[in-house]
Amino acid sequence: MLMFIIRRLVQTVPVIIGVTFVVFFIMQLVPGDPAVLLAGEGASKDTIEAIREQLGLNRPLYVQYFDYLMNLANGDFGVSLKNSQPVLDEILVRLPITLELALFSILITIVLGMGAGIISAVKPYSMQDVGVMLVALIGISLPSFWFGLMLMYFFSVKLQILPVAGWDSLLHVILPALTLGAGGAAIVARMTRSSMLDVIRQDYIRTARAKGLRERLIIYKHALRNALIPVITVVGLQFGALLGGTVLVESIFAINGLGRMIVDAIRMRDLPMVQGGVLFASLIFVIVNLFVDVFYRFFNKRIELN
Amino acid sequence: MEKVIDKKVLLKVDQLKQYFPVKTESIFKPKAFVKAVDDVSFELFEGETLSIVGESGCGKSTTGRAILRLDEPTDGKVYYSGQNILELNKKEMRKLRGDLQVIFQDPFASLNPRQTVKQILNEAMAIQNVVEKPKRMDRMLELLGYVGLPPEALDRYPHEFSGGQRQRIGIARALAVDPKLIICDEAVSALDVSIQAQILNLLKKLQKQFQLTFLFISHDLSVVRHISDRVMVMYLGKVVEIAEKKDLFDSPLHPYTKALLSSIPVPNPTLKRERVMLTGDVPSPIDPPTGCRFHTRCPFAVENCKQVEPALREIRNNHFVSCHRAEELAQ
Amino acid sequence: MNEKNKPILEVKGLKTYFTTKRGVSKAVDGIDFTLHKGETLGIVGESGCGKSITSLSILRLIPSPPGKIAGGSILFKGNDLVTMSENEMRKVRGNEISMIFQEPMTSLNPVIPVGEQIAEALRLHQKMGRREAWAKSVEMLKLVGIPSPEKRAKQEPFQLSGGMRQRVMIAMALACTPEVLIADEPTTALDVTIQAQILALIKDLQTKIGMGVIMITHDLGVVAETCDKVAVMYAGNIVEHATTEQIFANPKHPYTQGLLASLPKIYEDQEELRTIEGSVPSSYNMPAGCRFASRCPYQEAICTAQQPELVEQSDGSKVRCWKYTEQWTGQVEQEEVV
């Protein structure tokens, strides 16, 4: 197991280098010249050239990339073009906020999704199953920006029980997390249901029945643990989608997180900020996937042998 | 086996080895192999039925697949009418496949569900181009007649047939290209006894009719007894005994063969036999026991068996066994 | 003495039907048998004859829908399992009547240590504490001949071989010392040398515990070696019910005769095997007369007209065949089976 984790960690290194490569070069393709933007409208050619010189933007790309890598290795993510703050500091301020949002969202995805899936699977084709699956279908189909606005309108404007936007208390987390987690929850619910239905047909469930166990114990002890194995993978994938979603949700609810930071930086052509933000988001994704793999392996030790 | 002068060798397997690599946990550990078939040699005579028997994991099916190059063997030679078929290139091998056919355990899995019987048979003939196009229809009806299916079967799909009938389709397909050798890999194992009897009778009939040679792979010793001329017993990738059928069943020499034979439940409650009960499970083929591979379960094992691997030797006429103590145990 | 002769399990007119889009499949259609303490009853037949459905019906483990016990009774120590509440039924399952299945590879939960899978039944039925149940399950593993049982108990099924998994299944089934053990093709998936071990183990434990065993199998060899009496099933019916000696020495029903004749013999040479021509009728559309009539070499007019009853013969065996009744004319008597 330890060997596996180490091997898996080693494998992430080329992935991360690949990410830096992609992040760096995609940024070069983005239209718009940061030097021009920084110099402001109507600046003379010389001024722009001077800024370029100052930022090192006039050197060959591969030199810039290598430089970038070396700086990264030293923990230097560059300086924001906009406010001259170190990118890393800017990110570290916002990272906890986004992580908190992501964590609550994934919690909602898991709890709501699995719960609904189990309720559906226990009595397949019953009213409760059809109802839950209908809601799940709607959940998958709804665009999150619309869903977020609807939640905001209903709970904050109409009922006035939850704050509209911002990020001060735990109450502020509820609506954005729900917006972000709902789509994933719907997918997880459908996956849990089909996985449960598959497991319930297995021979070992019949064995459990033949033992005289109660139906509840059969479901929660014998069926669920096996059914969750494929669901874990789906949850892991959902986490990726969720990171992408933070960009939108943070904008809607005016949360000063990593997602919004990237959006703002893109708008400002603040290259180092965008690079740093995307890099961090990628890092989180890689780490989460690592966890999912280890988790999956823990749950399903048979993989080792087969 | 020079003594059998009147018999012509059709297939000669020489020191065949089939190792499959297994994933190891650590990159530092040496690569491990499942030695599924480990140094197996035997000859197959024209027109005979040689059976390979043994329990799961003994390498009997792997041997069959290696001969057909369905899995490329690790080492060894397989001579078919004098030429080593493991050295043939793809084109030559494809040509040879017309001579070497195979029937699998699960006919359903080996028949394309979207093809009618007509398409299945047509395709088989087209690949080898054994029958000219205009004559194919007649040939198909002839084939169905051989395997006991009605002409209407041509336009039906595999799922419309029962297990026994599907196996007949599989046989017809194998026959379509005029083969010399058919490898039957657990061909009747999935069938109910009454159906199994029909297929066994059919195979025997066809063998006579077309002078076919069978390599019959099975775990069922009663079936093997019925269909074979000679029997080869395998254990953990090794041949432990080869003999004429009657010889093997009446006076087995290897302790494993004895145990295997005495383990079969016999449908005769009045027959009381002495049973050689083996203890424990078959060891892993990844790290097989040293010396004689059977020594861990053998009731007669001595120190020598743990150290020295026994060679396959001829103890009686045409009766080969790989056991150090074969002579003394035979008495 | 009287008490001893009373059967522990009495199945009367059991019918299990499956309702699907194609109609009603009469998988088990009115079968009767009894089982006494310490006795082994074999239920033998080819695939689709209803033998496995019978065994699942006894424990009411038929997947429902589409399956349903449509009639008859299953008296266990005088109580009818068919009409019992689900709650009461659960107290019978795994406690008084246990079952082992064909596929040891898939019948154990892959993510739960085998010791726990045995222990949970003990906690449930015997009201044992955690520690006590675990100790007992280790003891059971030892009893079924698993080496280093303490270590094995903590392992998950994938770490065990097929033979060992079937031993675990047996340990699980016998943990609560049941009065009846239903073994549904317990050795079909195993190699012959392992099969011999498992059958010997079941026999050995049967004498220790004194339970009745129902052995469901397609293998007449297994029947000959393990059973005291045999019920031969064909197309949802029992066609012959007799002692093991009677079945093999003097099979009466043409189907039983055909079945025995189609077996390749291990101790003699035959040029050709006898076969049973034709095929089993569809369970959705059973013929009105004898279900074997279309394949029977002795068929007379009455055979296709009316279904025969399972009738007791002078030697105590029971046969469902017109040949053994007064209605039989014997006019088209064919050559006797060799």
From TrEMBL, chain A:
Keywords: Cell membrane, Ion transport, Membrane, Nickel, Nickel transport, Transmembrane, Transmembrane helix, Transport
Record bears the keyword Transmembrane: yes
Residues of the signal peptide: none
One Gene Ontology cellular component annotation held by this UniProt entry: plasma membrane
Pfam families named in the record: BPD_transp_1, BPD_transp_1_N
Domain ABC transmembrane type-1 residue range list: 95-296
Transmembrane portions of the chain: 12-30, 101-122, 134-157, 169-189, 227-253, 273-296
Keyword Ion transport: yes
Gene3D superfamilies: MetI-like
InterPro entries attached to this UniProt entry: BPD_transp_1_N, MetI-like, MetI-like_sf, Opp2B
Subcellular location: Cell membrane
A GO MF label: dipeptide transmembrane transporter activity
Membrane association type: Multi-pass membrane protein
Summary of subunit composition and partner proteins: The complex is composed of two ATP-binding proteins (NikD and NikE), two transmembrane proteins (NikB and NikC) and a solute-binding protein (NikA).
Family of the protein in this entry: Belongs to the binding-protein-dependent transport system permease family. OppBC subfamily.
Name of the molecule in the record: Nickel import system permease protein NikB
Taxonomic source organism: Pseudoneobacillus rhizosphaerae
TrEMBL record, chain B:
GO terms, biological process: peptide transport; transmembrane transport
Protein's UniProt keywords contain Transferase: no
Keyword Oxidoreductase included in the entry's annotation: no
Matches recorded under Pfam families: ABC_tran (PF00005), oligo_HPY (PF08352)
Domain ABC transporter positions: 22-261
CDD domains to which the protein is assigned, alphabetical: ABC_NikE_OppD_transporters
Keywords noted in UniProt: ATP-binding, Nucleotide-binding, Transport
Alphabetized InterPro entries for the sequence: AAA+_ATPase, ABC_transp_ATP-bind, ABC_transporter-like_ATP-bd, ABC_transporter-like_CS, Oligopep_ABC_C, P-loop_NTPase
GO molecular function: ATP binding; ATP hydrolysis activity
SMART domains: AAA (SM00382)
Family to which this protein belongs: Belongs to the ABC transporter superfamily.
NCBIfam families: oligo_HPY, PRK11308.1
Protein name (Swiss-Prot/TrEMBL): Oligopeptide transport ATP-binding protein OppF
Organism listed in the record: Pseudoneobacillus rhizosphaerae
Lineage: Bacteria, Bacillati, Bacillota, Bacilli, Bacillales
From TrEMBL, chain C:
CDD domains with a match to the protein in the record: ABC_NikE_OppD_transporters
Domain ABC transporter: 9-260
Stored Pfam families: ABC_tran, oligo_HPY
Database matches in Gene3D superfamilies: P-loop containing nucleotide triphosphate hydrolases
Topological type in the membrane: Peripheral membrane protein
Cellular localization per UniProt: Cell membrane
Domain of life: Bacteria
Keyword annotations from UniProtKB, A to Z: ATP-binding, Cell membrane, Membrane, Nucleotide-binding, Transport
GO molecular function: ATP binding; ATP hydrolysis activity
Keyword Transport carried by entry: yes
GO-annotated cellular components: plasma membrane
Record-annotated membrane-spanning stretches: none
One GO process term, biological-process aspect: peptide transport
Main localization of the protein described in the UniProt heading: membrane
The keyword Nucleotide-binding belongs to this UniProt entry's keyword annotation: yes
Annotated NCBIfam families: oligo_HPY
Family stated for the protein in its record: Belongs to the ABC transporter superfamily.
Name this polypeptide is given: Oligopeptide transport ATP-binding protein OppD
